[in-house]
Amino acid sequence: MINIPKGTKDVLPSQSYKWQYIEDKARAVAKRFCLDEIRTPAFEHTELFQRGVGETTDVVNKEMYTFEDKGGRSVTLKPEGTAGAVRLFIENGLFSSPLPVKTFYITPAFRYERPQSGRLREFHQFGIEVFGSAAPETDAEVILAASEFLKELGIKQVRLEINSIGCPECRAEYNKKLKEYFKPRLGELCETCRTRFESNPLRLLDCKEEECKKINAGAPSILESLCPDCARHFERVKELLKAQGVEFTVNPRIVRGLDYYTRTVFEFVSDRIGAQGTVCGGGRYDGLVSSLGGPQTPATGFAAGIERLMLLMENTGAEIPKPTKIRIYIAGMDESSRSAAFTIARELRQAGVAAEFDHMERSVKSQLKYADKVGAEYVAVIGEDELATGVVSLKKMATGEAVAVKINDLCAYLKKE
Length: 417
Ligand code: HAM
Description:
Elements lengths: L15 H17 L3 E2 L5 E3 H7 L5 H5 L3 E3 L5 E4 L4 H10 L9 E10 L11 E10 L4 H17 L6 E6 L3 H15 L8 H9 L10 H7 L11 H16 L5 E2 L11 E8 L8 E7 L3 H4 L7 E7 H11 L11 E5 L2 H16 L4 E3 L6 H10 L4 E5 L1 H6 L1 E6 L5 E5 L3 H7 L1
Parallel strand pairs: 1-5, 7-8, 12-13, 12-14
Antiparallel strand pairs: 2-4, 3-4, 5-6, 6-11, 7-9, 9-10, 10-11, 14-15, 15-16
Helix pairs in contact: 1-5, 5-9
The protein binds histidyl-adenosine monophosphate.
Histidyl-adenosine monophosphate binds next to strand 6, strand 10, strand 11 and helix 11.
């Protein structure tokens, strides 16, 4: 027996309706927000993520599934969706089409992390990426799309936290201040923070170690270092969200784990799913398109982890309705009625009705037992009499009620019910 790789999950036939439900909601929200779907390959040239996501991030440093293919090229399974979306945007010249280019995706992503509840090595993201707009309205729209998506899933126990991490100019100033603050305290910080001190001091703010957290509490806030343009942008995003009734808190400790962000960053966080509480994260990334070889193009987006959403829904009682799989089960008594059941099922299917018949050569009694077990909504038994009269007794399993229906009228009857 060969087992499933650690950190991955099967979706079982009895559970796939939950995935379909969440994906349908994602697509419905995307449609209302006028987004077009994009699909990018599961693997890309490793360099795309090194340059796109950033050399100093954990994702690139520790978590990528990187390998050499048979042609000796280094390729990497996508650890997230944004870098591939940006490559697609540049490579296909979408910057020449009417802007903004508004896209969404549902994709698997791969990170070699220590698996735990809500943290997998293969997971799935619903993400949106909007290219071409620098306006704060677009930041607000992207946040609103995430918020509506979560609301539609019946998720209430999440809070929205937002921050601005400024542009490269104000961030350089802020990094200086951070270094001044942390330098005399370096000895008290964890090893990871000590290595990040030089390469990416902003990330020190997001350390989960208790000792580091205590020290972080006294660090200067980025919000005090924003340049006038970035400060105005952030004010406007907050105004727009307030005007739309979107509740949020400003958390100057949110810096995100990926290097490409500028200005607005945000996370939807829950206390109900353990340590991995961020169900959705995103923000603006105005420098990424140009740093990957495209023209200067502002952009913003988010990604929500589908497994974490599912966990949150389970833990908070947000229901996913189970659809009826078999609308009608047609049982056959003998050989000729079994063939008739086959034909009737086929005709019903052609008319769009989910119809099933016996595949196991079971007795009528066992066929009925099976139909009940698998939750068929209606059952009709076909025998000699039914074939002669062309009428069946159609039983509604939930109530036990039976009505006589002409075989030829079954489809119309089921469509009406
Ligand atoms: P991220 O915060 O790295 O951002 O991931 C987004 C979401 O993916 C997380 O909030 C979480 O729900 C889910 N996720 C991440 N890692 C795992 C894991 N190991 N297991 C299960 N779920 C996970 C991004 O990926 C950015 N590309 C988002 C973005 C799009 N920013 C702008 N546009």
